[in-house]
Design a protein that fits this description.
Length: 280
Amino acid sequence: MHRTVCRSNSWRKSNKFIIHSGAGGNLMKKFLAVVLILMVPAVLMAQDNVQEWLDKGDAAYESFDNQTALTSYKKVLELDEQNFDGLWKTARALTDVGKALGGDAEKEHYLEADKYARKCIELYGDKAESHYVLALSVGRLALFEGGKKKIELSKEVEAEAKKALEVNPEHDGAAHILGRWNHNIATLGWFLRAAAKVVYGGVPKGATLENAEKYFAMAIDLNPEKPVHRLEYARTLIELEKYAEAKTQLQKCLDLEKVQWEDDNHKKEAAKMLKEIRNK
């Protein structure tokens, strides 16, 4: 009889342990549920803050305040370091701020833009803007290089701009870059071409003024409101001695509203070019 009682007591102790363990598990579940509930507002708040900084950056960009735009986009990346819009727009803003600063700071900003653009390619290689900002930043960096390095960067500019257009055939910025790429290489003097061929194996092939004309016309079709498209198209038309159409494009550049921070300079240049070809 005594042994039976002992077995009974042992079973009760074991059963109590099971009951308490079950209760502990329920408490843990409740605790985790409370933690998750408390985390949701924080996550939502972070998302709201990301969007808030994106909106501030976009507003600053549209009002030509490049430094504020850059600061705002970097705030986005402090909250979400892999945010797509934060990455590509930071790269774009760095090229804008760098160009405005000039000097050593200009190249430093382009190098930083290149870093963000490559991060964008790494994470979002299927996005047109990733390839666009890499083409943009590399193209700006190429201005500070010479010889073989400049040629290598030039090839990368073309490749990335073409990828951007492949992903998004309506990307006027990528079309514009390809227009400039063709124009700049096609207008190299024979001496520079010959020197590049001897020392570096030649300049990138396939660049022509006709291709430049095609890409600038494409950029205008995609976004007719950008003065810079008109300016660079006219520059190419002048090289092709199509003066009547060049005059038309330069006048349109002058008539359009300012949509980019450099448009005041674009318009001044357009006015100068228009005066130069007035009698042609």
